Amino acid sequence: MLLADGDHTNQSLRGFFPEASSPPSAEPAAVAAWFEAEIERASNTGQSLIVDFGGGDQTIKKMSRELSLVESINEAGLTPVALYCIGGDPDDLGALYSLYDAFAPPATLIVFSRFALPSHIDAVSWLETAVRQHQPLQAILDAGAELVPVPTLSCAHRLSERRLKFFDAVSGSGTPPLGVFDRQRVQTWMRGMETSFARVTHYLP
Fold first, then answer.
1. Angstrom distance (rounded) from CA 50 to CA 13
2. I need a labelling partner for 135 at 20 to 30 A (CA). Which of 42, 97, 126, 198 fits?
3. From the CB of residue 98, how many other CB atoms can be counted at a distance below 10 Å?
4. pLDDT tens digits, residue range 106-139?
């Protein structure tokens, strides 16, 4: 598959996958042109494309003002999938509503990270309260979006520091490699991720 890191100021995806493409500059017109070119490239090669945009990026919103992005991607022979990440910060929901208004393909996943919640708050209770109290979120779910809670990986910062991919971390790669307990934590987390995404794997490359 093709990988594209649209976060020009904080390219964490390229830290793990140096082969990922990126826009030539952070200038909005350059990012939009790069994004369109990546979609065209995926269309021409018949490959799946994963694009990572940073929080607050306006590219999709601006493009949606002049065209239907979902229809354009479909016309390119690709199936658009939106994956929105939220945590326990109410501002995350505001960003979700704003982006969803601009880009809401039938395949929309809302990935809820428990790691972003304070340790004293139960994730399930928070989600139930958020859905009950936030009518726009309930409306998005009623429209067919899938809510995917993901487990916490307490040693994630160690993988990030070493730029370790999950399978490499489990196998003991890296300098220095993870210790035996952290390797077990990653294995357990990966099993949890498989369970969380089991019902939506047909949306993924």
1. 10
2. 198
3. 13
4. 999 999 887 656 666 676 677 777 776 778 888 9
